[in-house]
Amino acid sequence: MKLKILVGTMTSTADYVAQSIQMDCGDLIDEIEVTMMDGRDISAFDEDALYLICTSTYGSGDVPDNARMLYESMSSQPKFLGHVRYGVIALGDRTYMQTFCFGGKKFDERLQDLGAQRIGEVWCHDASAGTLAESEGTAWCREWLALATAHVPATA
Ligand SMILES: Cc1cc2nc3c(=O)[nH]c(=O)nc-3n(C[C@H](O)[C@H](O)[C@H](O)COP(=O)(O)O)c2cc1C
Description:
This protein is of the alpha/beta class and 156 residues long. The protein is built from four helices and six strands, in the order βαββαβαββα.
């Protein structure tokens, strides 16, 4: 099985997290592909893969600029995503109390609306906590991958 990580970022933290996962979690899954969300639309979910949304939050609880087209296409060109199994890494900062990690949470909400199945809980990283998103995110992802690969429906 392939893990496809879709990255939404302004200042690259989410990209570093995705790259760290790609380097550290290769023993848990056949292939890991890191794809920036730039210029992508809902067809990004057409592949037969396990998906990981890895995105930060900007503005007042918005998705980053490079994630906007993908996020908006999920409303403007909606389609049933029942085949999609996914997880969410949401980067944010608790200083923004009202909109903490809304970038990732918004993707989660939209994916659920379209019938996709989330594995595990949305994982949130708080930039004000002083912990490294890369190392914490990779540790979370190892547990998440164990859960996700244990629940793969058997192929005929
Ligand atoms: C201008 C600006 C606005 C932000 N707005 C929010 C917000 O509304 N909610 C939140 O949880 N984090 C917010 N953040 C924090 C970022 O999401 C956080 O620092 C994240 O780790 C950045 O990741 P990136 O480098 O991948 O873009 C904001 C940061 C900046 C600079």
